Amino acid sequence: MAKKKEREIIKLKNSETKECYWTVKNKKNTTDKLERKKYSKKLRKHIVFKEAK
User: Fold this and answer.
1) Where are the domains of the chain?
2) Fold topology of 7-52
């Protein structure tokens, strides 16, 4: 019998430049929205990327 998937593919999006990264999160352990500080190629600095639908 197949297991229920606990991991979900999500999109991290920057509101300033509309850049996005794809990542995976465990929806069982992390129920709130993710915020990650990642490098923006357009701005050439680290900025906050938030989870988008």
Assistant:
1) 7-52
2) Rubrerythrin, domain 2 (2.20.28)
pLDDT in tens, 18-42: 899 999 999 889 889 999 999 999 9
CB 12 within 8 A of CB 29: no
pTM score, whole prediction: 0.76
List, in order, residues 6 or more apart from 18 with CB less than 8 Å away: none
Cα–Cα distance for residue pair 11/22, rounded to 1 Å? 5
d(CA 20, CA 22): 7
Can you count the helices (H) and strands (E) in the chain?
A: 0, 4
